[in-house]
Amino acid sequence: MTTSPTNTELQQQPEQQYSQPQSQQEQQQEHQHQQSLARFPSHKEPRVWFLSCGTCPTARALVPKLIAHGDKVATGVRGVEIEREDDRAAAYQTFLGELGEEERTRLKIINMDIRSIGQCQAAISETVEVWGRVDVMLCCTSEAVVGTVEELSASTGTLNLVRDQFETNYFGPVNIIKAVLPTFRSKRAGHLLVLTGITGHIGSPGLGTYCASGWALEGFCDSLAYEIAPFNIKMTILQPSMEVNLLTNKITFTPPHPAYSSDTNHAPFVRDILTRTIHRQSFMATQSTPPSAPFSSATSQEKDKSNAPPKSKSKRRTETPSQSSSSPSSSNLLSSNATESVSLFPPLPDSSLIALVAETVHAITAIGGHDNPPTRHIVGHEAVASVKEKLKTVSEELEDFVEVSGAVDIPRGEEVGSGPDNTAESTDSEGEED
């Protein structure tokens, strides 16, 4: 029989599932190695890609490779994301500035909020109007809400965060998938790539809502794959390690509940790992980054105003940890005494972000548009090991209780309602007749 994990094992669990970022030199070496391995499946003509989120590090690392390969790319971008004065917007503007004139002719940027089905349909229509078709659609939109079930039920604000999580991570991808399906059906070809994570296989304490939205999306995609197969439309779910999506997209932390403090509760909460990582990166930023290049930080009140026009610089909350202690910083807002939710992009250097997604980008280029792609692909050795361990546990528990599972099964050939006594009686009566 399998045994319940001890507190020590629980404390060690997140370190196995969630690896800490490599040094900058290691990341650059890994990035160069992945670039040298980049390959594409064979195809007769340049393809047209649509990426749901053009500002994320995955898209910024992928687009130059696709364009260099001769493909054309359309990306959805929320205008508010590139109008803010933060590192995310600055990195995107730098990315656009590094593209050559010829490369720009193969990139189409479309204003789109994935949470709006109308905007998704308009974006696909615009792509078809410009380039005639869409061959591969990559859904790479993701955000994470960190908080236990009780923390997410503490107020109207935190309950709204749960809804926002599903709007972005589940209903958003469903919107863009539904928008592109008619185009794929009309030409009886197309490939849907959906970027989720191993959180679609493995639950993590403190990421219940994030995992739930991922599991919902994967269940949707698994079912859809059967429906679209007759139209020669392929579906692939890509699952990189947990940190790939968490550290490259926006994270929202809810106010902590004292009952779930690491001092008294030994569950391996992701909040603690992410907080330590962000604090460490923030400290490194104060040593090497000038105050003019802060990382993005926004409270829950600012989040509600994300669709409003940008305010003047004097009113923007873009302080760095090195600034006056009277101004809220990520370190203060992520403390155990925090009383409000905080949203931020992890303050990793852009080179580190691009290196972090290198394996995922390599998988996308190798699988996207393939004639016979996998339905589900795990990215990276650590992710593979984590999923194998989960499947092993499921298999062991199945074997431990297999007798219970089959205890009420009705033997073949035996009618419902008949039992051992009835069977015996019928046998006796047959003997008497003989």
Can you offer a commentary on this structure?
The structure is a single chain. α3 links the parallel β1 and β2. The N terminus is likely disordered. The longest helix is centred in the middle third of the chain and has 32 residues. It is globular and about 60 Å long. The relative contact order is 0.14. By secondary structure, it is α/β, with parallel strands linked by helices. It is built from 18 helices and eleven strands. 49% of the residues lie in helices and 11% in strands. A seven-stranded parallel beta sheet has the order 3-2-1-4-6-7-11, with helices on both faces.
Walk across the major sheet and give the strand order: 3-2-1-4-6-7-11
The helicity comes to 40-55%
Q: Globular, elongated, flat, extended or rod-shaped: what is the shape?
A: globular
Distance between the termini: 50 Å
Low confidence ranges: 1-21, 288-330
What's the helix-strand series? HHEHEHHHEHEEHEHEHEHEHHEHHEHHH
Number of helices: 18
- Biggest sheet character: 7 strands, parallel
Classify the secondary structure makeup into a structural class: alpha/beta
What characteristics describe this protein?
11 strands; four-stranded mixed sheet; seven-stranded parallel sheet; alpha/beta; 434 residues; 18 helices; disordered N terminus; globular
